[in-house]
């Protein structure tokens, strides 16, 4: 399909066109109003505010989502979430377009520059360290549920002023499931255990503060056999991640949960139908998380949800890319994504059209929860404060 944004224009013009297209589509679909001012009276006072962040390891193009031909793939995003949210149409990632390094940049608020396939911790302090150090929160109050073993170091940085002992607890659902199964039984769960779609042979060393199976089972009040039995009923790794997130919410009610979904990244396999399935599943799981927030007494009325991709994907027309399959070009379509924010104190059914950066997330969370993020390169988004 011909891209409506490629006409020899500059990256800034293309990004603006993407934002304009998303805005007009949402206005027609949901009646969303354009935010004409970035000035707010100040963050709403919400007692014991909590936050849940959902990122996507592998974005979805507008052709398969916000354009008219793609809207059938995101029915819940359009009908249930966006009408309750402030939606940012132009979120630009100026960093490296690899999933671990890009997600680490989202979590630090600074563009990390390490090798995407290196088993290293972020250089800059993470949002979890800022949160725990400034607010003196225990380790049980910040959690990351990560899609693959390559994310095991994302919970805390190598920064000398933060680092060891101040990060989030990291849950690697695929690793937990793999350790619960015999080699023979593991064959039955191959669809849940595949670790990396972009580089299937990549097998990083495991380290960092990642959760062990029996420790997590005790925390979640869930036996290893029950965990394995439930996993067998699930269709994808992302469903397993959301299942663990919901159990954490019910058992511990942490103030900060970060979930990275990864099913969309099956696009690297070249199977368009699986890519579409990943989009539709992500749409459903995001709605499931929001409904869970509303139904859990410890979260209802005091939790903000942020949803955003780490970056986009290539266009069909760029000779340097592979269309929906990859994100190799680094062009405006690969870098320009979106974000929605909803919950108490955030305006509903509002569209923000100005360009913002993905690294703006961390200082925004800091402004909401009351902690500083001195090493972040971003700026707090005033539209949600």
Question: What descriptors fit this protein?
Answer:
385 residues; 13% strand; 10 strands; ten-stranded mixed β-sheet; alpha/beta; 13 helices; 34% helix
In oligomeric terms, what are we looking at?
A: single chain
User: What is the H-and-E element order?
Assistant: HEEHEHHEEHHHHHHEHEHEEEH
- Mean pLDDT figure: 85
The coarse silhouette is: globular
Helix-and-strand structural type: alpha/beta
Percent helix: 25-40%
**What is the number of helices?**
13
Beta-strand content estimate:
5-15%
Gyration radius over CA: 19 Å
N-end to C-end Cα span: 39 Å
Characterize the main sheet: 10 strands, mixed
Say how many strands there are: 10
What does this structure look like?
With 385 residues, this protein is of the alpha/beta class. Helices cover 34% and strands 13% of the residues. It has helices spanning 11-30, 75-81, 99-108, 127-135, 173-180, 183-186, 190-193, 213-220, 224-232, 237-251, 272-295, 332-335, 361-369; strands spanning 33-34, 50-56, 85-92, 142-145, 169-171, 256-261, 303-309, 336-342, 350-352, 356-357. Strands 1, 2, 3, 4, 5, 6, 7, 8, 9 and 10 form a ten-stranded mixed sheet that branches. The longest helix has 24 residues, at 272-295. It is globular and about 55 Å long.
């Amino acid at each position: 399909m011909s891209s409506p944004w490629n006409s020899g224009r500059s990256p800034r013009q293309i990004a603006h066109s993407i934002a304009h297209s998303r805005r007009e589509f949402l206005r027609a679909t949901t009646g969303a109003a354009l935010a004409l001012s970035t000035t707010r009276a100040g963050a709403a006072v919400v007692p014991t505010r909590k936050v849940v962040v959902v990122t996507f390891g592998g974005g979805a193009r507008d052709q398969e989502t916000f354009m008219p031909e793609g809207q059938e793939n995101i029915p819940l995003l359009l009908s249930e979430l966006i009408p309750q949210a402030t939606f940012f149409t132009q979120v630009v990632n100026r960093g490296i377009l690899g999933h671990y390094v890009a997600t680490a940049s989202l979590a630090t608020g600074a563009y990390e520059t390490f090798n995407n396939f290196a088993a290293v911790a972020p250089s800059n302090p993470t949002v979890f360290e800022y949160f725990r150090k400034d607010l003196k929160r225990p380790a049980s109050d910040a959690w990351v549920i990560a899609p693959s073993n390559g994310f095991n170091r994302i919970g805390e940085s190598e920064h000398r002023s933060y680092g060891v002992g101040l990060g989030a607890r990291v849950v690697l659902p695929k690793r937990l499931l793999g350790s619960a199964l015999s080699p023979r039984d593991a064959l039955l769960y191959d669809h849940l255990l595949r670790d990396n779609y972009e580089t299937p042979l990549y097998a990083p060393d495991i380290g960092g503060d990642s959760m062990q199976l029996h420790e997590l089972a005790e925390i979640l009040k869930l036996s290893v056999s029950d965990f394995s039995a439930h996993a067998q009923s699930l269709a994808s790794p992302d469903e397993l991640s959301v299942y663990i997130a919901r159990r954490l919410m019910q058992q511990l009610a942490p103030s900060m949960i970060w979930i990275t979904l990864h099913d969309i990244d099956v696009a690297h396999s070249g199977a368009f139908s699986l890519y579409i399935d990943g989009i539709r599943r992500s749409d459903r799981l995001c709605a499931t998380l929001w409904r869970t927030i509303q139904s859990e007494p410890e979260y209802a009325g005091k939790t903000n949800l942020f949803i955003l991709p780490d970056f986009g994907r290539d266009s069909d027309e760029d000779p340097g890319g592979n269309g929906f399959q990859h994100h190799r070009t680094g062009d405006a379509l690969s870098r320009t994504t979106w974000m929605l924010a909803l919950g108490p104190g955030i305006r509903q059914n509002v569209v923000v059209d100005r360009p913002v950066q993905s690294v703006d997330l961390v200082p925004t969370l800091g402004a909401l929860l009351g902690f500083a993020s001195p090493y972040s390169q971003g700026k707090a988004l005033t539209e949600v404060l």
